[in-house]
Automatic annotation (TrEMBL):
SMART domains with a match to the protein in the record: IG, IGc2
The protein's name: Ig-like domain-containing protein
GO MF annotations, alphabetized: integrin binding
Bilayer topology term: Single-pass type I membrane protein
Length: 308
């Protein structure tokens, strides 16, 4: 029974056992960056007599390579590699006996990802206004394998593929637009555009970080407490607010009948010698190009003889 089985295998193998030729095409999954050098090697062994090598592209186009050979191996050299080298390539080896023949194929993959992304539009944003941040990734191939991710700090805002249509067989500039409504908290944060070319062996990533500038109106105002001052003495009022650009502070004294008088500027208002006329309500107004914010404080002037 066992012998019979071996006999059967021999009969099945017999028609091909004449061809001993062993043909190997390396690398198995050829991949190269545009501009680099790629060498495909076809090596034959166990061949009776001289080996003849022929190379073909399966798309009936030229190979655009240089050939080098010796007795046992043939090489296709692509130097520099370009988009024209992409596609299936096969190597055929024939021994002295034309029936002793073998073929191997490989798919050549080509990619280009030469530069880091460029972020634009992050320099002058205004709180609450719809804004576009643009990320441009130059000269990418194949563009349909590029993914672009936007991050604010380390939080992912948006994941997307290329937004512009892909042109086959060409390196392309890929653009991704982030539509975004900035908040004051985003000011000074980092925005990242992370581009990943998803190619077979290992994805290649390049990223660019930009600082966000958000203009926002004054807020978080801190004004000094209401005070009582003795006539003839000095007093100081302070007023600070956050904002971008840095707010400017103006002081007004509110008079009866809704009138007001400018009494100073800057975060500090200092009076050296208090008189009765200093008694009353003061308003500080913090303002910048985006808006303004006011706060009030009362000064109560006291003296031996209440002069009013
Ligand atoms: C033929 O070329 C191959 C590939 O370059 C090399 O590995 C091999 O050693 C060469 N053989 C001879 C006999 O020169
Ligand atoms: C922004 O990124 C820079 C370097 O890329 C880093 O030094 C800085 O601390 C980051 N800022 C914030 C707010 O994360
Ligand atoms: C302060 O802001 C208000 C709107 O919030 C505006 O009407 C006014 O003109 C501003 N005043 C100044 C002095 O900028």
């Amino acid at each position: 029974m066992f012998q019979f089985a071996i006999g059967l295998i021999c009969i099945i193998l017999l028609p091909t056992s004449e061809s001993k030729l062993v043909l190997v095409l390396t690398p198995k999954n050829p991949m190269a960056r545009v501009g680099e050098r790629l060498v495909l090697t076809c090596s034959a062994s166990e061949c009776a007599g001289d080996v003849t090598f022929t190379w073909q592209s399966l798309k009936d186009r030229p190979l655009y390579g240089r050939m080098e050979k010796n007795n046992t191996a043939s090489q296709q050299i692509f130097d520099p590699v370009g988009m024209q080298h992409e596609g299936k390539v096969s190597c055929v080896a024939t021994c002295a006996d034309p029936k002793d023949k073998a073929q191997r194929s490989a798919s050549v993959e080509v990619y280009a990802f030469p530069k880091d992304p460029i972020i634009s539009g992050s320099e002058l944003l205004t709180e609450g206004q719809d804004s576009d941040l643009t990320c441009t990734v130059p000269d990418v191939y194949p563009a349909d394998r590029l993914k672009v991710q936007w991050l604010l700090g380390d939080k992912v805002l948006k994941d997307n593929k290329a937004v512009n249509p892909v042109v086959k067989g060409e390196a392309q500039t890929v653009t991704s637009v982030l539509k975004y409504k900035p908040t004051a908290q985003d000011h000074g944060q980092n925005v990242t555009c992370r581009a990943t070319l998803d190619i077979k062996t290992e994805p290649e990533t390049r990223e660019t970080v930009a600082s966000i500038t958000v203009q926002y109106s004054p807020r978080d105002v801190h004004i000094s407490e209401n005070i009582q001052v003795n006539i003839g003495e000095s007093f100081t009022l302070t007023c600070q607010a956050k904002g971008h650009p840095e707010p400017t502070v103006l002081w007004r004294k509110l008079e009866k009948g809704g009138l007001s008088v400018m009494v100073g500027d800057g975060e500090t208002l200092r009076v050296k010698e208090t008189s009765w006329s200093h008694d009353g309500d003061y308003e500080c107004m913090s303002h910048n190009t985006v808006g303004n914010l006011t706060a009030q404080v009362t000064v109560n002037v006291q003296g031996e003889s209440d002069g009013r």
